[in-house]
Amino acid sequence: MSSEGISPDKVTYINLLDAFTTPSMLDEGKRIHKLTVEEGLNSDIRVGTALVTMCVRCGDVDSAKQAFKGIADRDVVVYNALIAALAQHGHNVEAFEQYYRMRSDGVALNRTTYLSILNACSTSKALEAGKLIHSHISEDGHSSDVQIGNALISMYARCGDLPKARELFYTMPKRDLISWNAIIAGYARREDRGEAMRLYKQMQSEGVKPGRVTFLHLLSACANSSAYADGKMIHEDILRSGIKSNGHLANALMNMYRRCGSLMEAQNVFEGTQARDVISWNSMIAGHAQHGSYETAYKLFQEMQNEELEPDNITFASVLSGCKNPEALELGKQIHGRITESGLQLDVNLGNALINMYIRCGSLQDARNVFHSLQHRDVMSWTAMIGGCADQGEDMKAIELFWQMQNEGFRPVKSTFSSILKVCTSSACLDEGKKVIAYILNSGYELDTGVGNALISAYSKSGSMTDAREVFDKMPSRDIVSWNKIIAGYAQNGLGQTAVEFAYQMQEQDVVPNKFSFVSLLNACSSFSALEEGKRVHAEIVKRKLQGDVRVGAALISMYAKCGSLGEAQEVFDNIIEKNVVTWNAMINAYAQHGLASKALGFFNCMEKEGIKPDGSTFTSILSACNHAGLVLEGYQIFSSMESEYGVLPTIEHYGCLVGLLGRARRFQEAETLINQMPFPPDAAVWETLLGACRIHGNIALAEHAANNALKLNARNPAVYILLSNVYAAAGRWDDVAKIRRVMEGRGIRKEPGRSWIEVDNIIHEFIAADRSHPETAEIYAELKRLSVEMEEAGYFPDTQHVLHDLGKAHQETSLCTHSERLAIAYGLIKTPPGTPIRIFKNLRICGDCHTASKFISKLVGREIIARDSNRFHSFKNGKCSCEDYW
Predict the structure, then answer these.
(1) Per-residue confidence (pLDDT) for residue 14, from 0 to 100
(2) How far from 197 is each of 156, 181, 182, 201, 230, CA to CA, in Å?
(3) Is 105 among the domain residues?
(4) With 70 as the cut, is the pLDDT of residue 813 above it?
(5) What is the widest separation between alpha-carbon atoms in the chain?
(6) Is the pLDDT of residue 476 over 80?
């Protein structure tokens, strides 16, 4: 090659440099660069420009800058080459510096200059710079240039000023396909699918034929669950256009269908694509993993390698996301081994994927090993470990990591707070938890919706609904999760009526409830046995077609069962087409609560025949059913089979059920031996369970031992004091009863008063012992007096050992006759139709004398009385109770 005014040596170097076009050629290009420097040719404008261009093509921006500095007289071409390289590689500040230097050096700017520098304006921070460049374009007379106009539309759209982009678009004297693509891309990027689609239709009406890039932008706008119809229409338009759906377009279609929830159509596109790349495979692997098709995801992962495509970090992260439970741990470890074999650098994103996989699969130690092996961690690495420790009971470790991450310079984000707040109200780290909450409040993060929601949840779990309500009220913006959390909190803390009130407030504020709202609302109805309100909620669920959801169905079963309507619970269960372990557990637990152990065991056997594997909750319900019925042998057999036959490790809750079963059967020595031989230290609940059994059978010595151990673990639990006091009262040890009361008063511990309630005509009527506050008190007490006379004639005799105060005999008998459950029954008798069941509910255990009285009343009035107390249901009918006096 020869060129006028250029020496042969220069021409040779320019031709050589023009041949280097890829990163793999960079070393050879640098060797030529060195030779030009040695020969003093690098300062020549043509050679220097060739050097800058070569470095840019080979991806070495630093060498391009070095070559640029060596040029003596720089012209517009070399400036443009460097500015384009800097903008392309994200060195935007340096691109602006070179642009301003170019202007100050008096170099005449051209179209290429403006197109290159506008590419550097890619975020909202660059908007002001973009506006200044726009003014320069106007001054230089380039405003009417279509290419520059398109670049300005893209710049304003990327920088977040869509109104300005739109204004420019509509004022352009001439628009081409790229103009339309630029404005559509702006709205697609902002997830304004409606406007993107409107522009697409306008574009077609003006006779502009969409191209491949147009479709790519539109498909990105349609990549969400609500955009399926539009996405499907775009796909049909692509087919009609004759553009082949390969490469980027095929991948965009897969991604759109996957995100719209139509995995089958994504799979169809995948299978119809001939040239599938790593992105194609990654999209389908991620889709199947996200939709729970873990086996398919792993199968695709293997097929990809069979086609000699090497997985990248995204592939491994996608397939790891499918490992979501302990059963998938071995598979997760195999994938981890494959990552190691591949020689891939364990970057922070892939490291985080491994940490999360091990946490989901229950191996916190493996997660720790990965965490400590990472050379670089980010805030999500720390957040994952904090969440893992919180979920697996290592509360103090979670708090230690929370402070440690900040000491190492990582600022917590919303998800970090959501994770750490799970442990802040646990009894194991209450003081440290208060410090974390104080930190969050002082930093103002509670005003963030996500963090505020997590705070509401934390306060609710600790029973601090006043604090939860305060956070809720202060939140500047609330979402559906905020409402669900506060409703669930009130329901969990026995304030069901308040929860229902909040649900009505939510509707008044036009917040649309979702399935989680209905689950919380049903739990609220269960907590105060509001059957009619529960039925209204059920009707709304059917109206919204949510009854098929697994958790909604289970909550409905639980609500009907806890409201005493076992038949309707069974009906809901029967109508659920696709049942899983949650559904079966709800029905088994319903029968357990009602003391129908044979029914619960029958359902357990049916569940197995249906191929549903029981989990820990299943065994808690079954063991509870055996406890209520005194089925010691059956309970022992089921407990023993948990690990050996079903692979379910017994938890402390399961041991507690077995302790209760043995204690209630008077097998105290076996119960105590079991406690001492548990694989973990007994908690306060286990000792309280044993204490409850001692109260039933009057075992004073063991009751004192159990109470002492329970109080060592939680000295502020009023139930322990009350149970021990009841043991003493039944034995007539009134001095000890008085002593316990003094201790409770000194420690500021209050006994929850006994309350009973009944729902009549959609209104809850609540009573306490000797209550005279009800507007129909006279009628209620008249009914009680009538019943007392008839009961005495039928052979009833008050059992005064259930009076917990040192009173005279006459006062003791009067006290028993006005217990809250009797007042509720009397009100039910005078306000509900004859022959219909009476459903009453009590927050504490029904007293022994009221249990006897209820049997007499059911026979005298010829009505079924269904009573739910804090432990179980009792169905009194024709003088007998469903518990067969074993309770």
Answers:
(1) 84
(2) 20, 12, 14, 6, 8
(3) no
(4) no
(5) 131
(6) yes
Helices of type H across 444-565: 449-461, 465-474, 480-492, 496-508, 515-527, 531-543, 550-562
Quote the CA–CA distance of 297 and 323 in Å, as a whole number.
10
Domain that holds residue 588: 579-634
Higher per-residue confidence, 693 vs 41? 693
Which domain-ending residue is among 716, 751, 786? 751
Helix ranges (DSSP H) in 665-717: 668-677, 684-697, 700-713
**Nearest one of 548, 563, 482 to 520, comparing CA atoms:** 482
- Residue 261 φ/ψ, nearest 5 degrees: 90, 5
CA distances from residue 339 to 345, 818, 833 in whole angstroms, order as listed: 9, 72, 72
% helix, strand, coil for the chain, step of 5 = 70, 5, 30
E strand or H helix that includes residue 633 = helix 632-646
Residue whose token pair is 């097998």: 667
Q: Which of 688, 720, 751 is the last residue of a domain?
A: 751
CA separation for the pair 380, 163 (Å, rounded): 35
Pick the closest to residue 528 from 874, 762, 854, 775 (CA basis): 762
Residues 743 and 697 in one domain: yes
Residue 7 is predicted with a pLDDT of: 52
pLDDT per position as a tens digit, 838-876? 999 999 888 888 999 999 999 999 999 999 988 888 999
203 contacts 178 by C-beta, under 8 angstroms: no
Compute the distance between CA of residue 330 and CA of residue 761 in angstroms, rounded to an integer: 57
> What interhelical angle do 581-593 and 616-629 show, nearest 10?
20
For residue 839, give the DSSP letter: E
* Domain membership flag for residue 670: yes
Q: Are residues 709 and 775 in the same domain?
A: no
Q: How far is CA 234 from CA 196, 221, 227, 356, 791, in A?
A: 12, 11, 11, 36, 79
Tell me if residue 869 falls in helix, strand or coil.
coil
| Global confidence as pTM | 0.67
Give the pLDDT confidence of 42-97 residue by residue, as tens digits.
788 888 888 888 888 888 888 888 888 888 788 899 899 899 889 888 888 999 99
| Residue 443 within a domain | no
Q: How confident is the model at residue 494 (pLDDT cuts 50, 70, 90)?
A: confident
Same domain as 792, residue 723: no
